[in-house]
Amino acid sequence: MLKPNKILIIRFSALGDLVLTTPIFREMKKVFPDVHISLLTSAGDGSVLKNNPYIDHIIWHKRSETYSELKKLIIKLKKENYDLVYDAHRSLRSIWIVWNLNNFGLRTTPNVWLINKRSLQRSLLINFKLNFLNNTSSQRKHLLLPLQKQTSLVLNDHTELFPDQKTVTKINNFLLKNKLIHKKYIAIGASASYPLKRWPLKYFKELISMLINQDCPVVLVGGENETENVKLGQEFSGKVINAAGNFTPLESAELLKHARIVVTNDTSISHLAEAMLTPVLVFFGATVKEFGYSPFLKESKIIETSENLSCRPCSRDGRGKCSNPDRLRCLTSLTPEMAFSIIPELNYYNSEKTANNNSNP
To answer: Reduced to 3 states, what is the DSSP secondary structure of residue 4?
Structure first.
């Protein structure tokens, strides 16, 4: 069995994918207890992996660099003499780095592990509706496959994040200021990077109205200047708390930790929440669970259309144009009532409200 002393793991982005890499670091230490693990990641999204006790060293690198800067990085990495390099990204940049570290395959060290992105199978499913991903593992398990081949140990694929005490205190103060109680509010992630992943804004409005009518506190989460959150914040001013754009990824994760459930599009919000053991309700439209990004917590739910749409899936990540004459039918067929009916905490709010009403003369 391979017994490395120094390992380099490469994953630059995106935020959700970085969260999904977290089992790698923990399980690497389980299999190789004395190994030194370095992570090469972006200076932006990569911050979500700060404070991880299984990562010994993080190499921060900006996502857009000159060729000269990339060359300097490669020279720096060569000096580290890694025994093993795991390219968990497989971008053009990470491939170029790996090729240079092992002299284009002419050196036997470092050993190289590569993530199989299953690009061909996804393309066949999207373009020809040929499904070779029926029995595929989740992306979390898939990332662990190279390591699993090295050991008979059972590897755990749950994700995890590690907000520091400063972050914990900041979010606790936010909760106190806004009178939010642990596990008694619902977080809403109404935006997405690309349009084919966005549940209609009017549906989010209807769902939020239903939640407000049940006296359920609602917190909006997401990035800065996202149109959906801006409009929802204006629509429900004084009735919901808009935290979108106010926090770093790790701070957002800590905020989601305290939510009862997170209702969101198929985005990094769902991965942040589950890494903090908060269940999610996720809308799947242009994408499908066969891609490997489904939620894993027992309490989490996917909501996707029951209609047999020949156009679905149509995108890997929400980019592109909808070809259905009934635009975004994969998402518009998911009604607010459907989402409302499966939010598990509502029974609590209903029973508490009924009890309070009955106790009043």
So the answer is: coil
Instruction: Tell me the pairing of strands 36-42 and 111-114.
Output: unpaired
- Return d(Cα 15, Cα 359) in angstroms, integer: 47
Global pTM exceeds 0.70: yes
- Determine, yes or no, domain membership for 156: no
How do strand 301-304 and strand 280-284 relate by DSSP bridges?
parallel
Phi-psi region of 55 (alpha: psi -120 to 50; beta: other; left: phi over 0): beta
What is the C-alpha separation between 267 and 289, in angstroms, rounded? 13
pLDDT at 360: 46
Contacts of residue 216, Cβ cutoff 8 Å, sequence gap at least 6: 185, 186, 345, 346, 349
Q: What is the CATH number of the domain that holds 109?
A: 3.40.50.2000
Q: Give the span between the Cα atoms of 324 and 312, in whole angstroms.
A: 9
To which residue do tokens 């754009």 refer? 245
> Do the domain assignments include residue 158?
no
CA-based angle 24:30:35, to the nearest 5? 80
Least-confidence region, from 84-93, 140-149, 314-323, 350-359:
350-359
Query: What average pLDDT score do residues 322-345 get?
Result: 93
Residues 144 and 169 in one domain: no
355 in the same domain as 225: yes
Provide the 3-class DSSP secondary structure of residue 217.
Answer: coil
- Specify whether 111 is located in the same domain as 245: no
- Mean pLDDT calculated for residue range 242-260: 97
CA dist 163 → 18, 35, 53, 118, 130 (Å): 15, 24, 11, 32, 42
